[in-house]
Amino acid sequence: MCDNNNNAQICAEVEKLISNGQYDDALRKLDAVIDITPDAELLYTRGRLLWKLGRKTEAMSDYAAAVDIDPSSPAATALQMTRDIMDFYNHDLYNP
């Protein structure tokens, strides 16, 4: 999930936890690091994990925080995509 080498060790640990299905442990590790030093890459990674877990509002908050830190972060695209998903309205579904 992490894309660059700024936090290579943390990213490797988090990715290993995620690949083993240890999502809660991955979240705890990300929370601990982000609480000390907010980082766009780690916020984006945590947002992706939260989205995967169905915690969409929290994911969007992390994407927005990542964009505040680094506007060129991939979180900007993720934030726009999640907003599009949340704004989707199917007239046929609600008005048969």
Short structural description:
The chain is mainly alpha-helical.
Any chance you could write out the topology, listing elements then pairs?
Elements: H1 8-19, H2 23-36, H3 40-52, H4 56-69, H5 75-87, H6 91-94
Helix pairs in contact: 1-2, 2-3, 3-4, 4-5
Could you explain how this protein is built, in words?
The structure is a single chain. This protein has about 100 residues and is an all-alpha fold. It has one domain (about 10-85): Tetratricopeptide repeat domain (Serine Threonine Protein Phosphatase 5, Tetratricopeptide repeat, Alpha Horseshoe), CATH 1.25.40.10. It is about 75% helix and about 0% strand. α4 packs antiparallel against α5. The radius of gyration is 15 Å and the shape is globular.
Which terms would index this structure?
Serine Threonine Protein Phosphatase 5, Tetratricopeptide repeat; mainly alpha; 0% strand; 96 residues
Helix content bin: over 70%
* CATH topology value: Serine Threonine Protein Phosphatase 5, Tetratricopeptide repeat
* Distance between the amino and carboxyl termini: 40 Å
Series of H and E elements: HHHHHH
- pLDDT average, as an integer? 88
CATH architecture classification: Alpha Horseshoe
How many strand units? 0
Work out the helix count.
6
- Measured on Cα atoms, how large is the radius of gyration? 15 Å
Structural class: mainly alpha
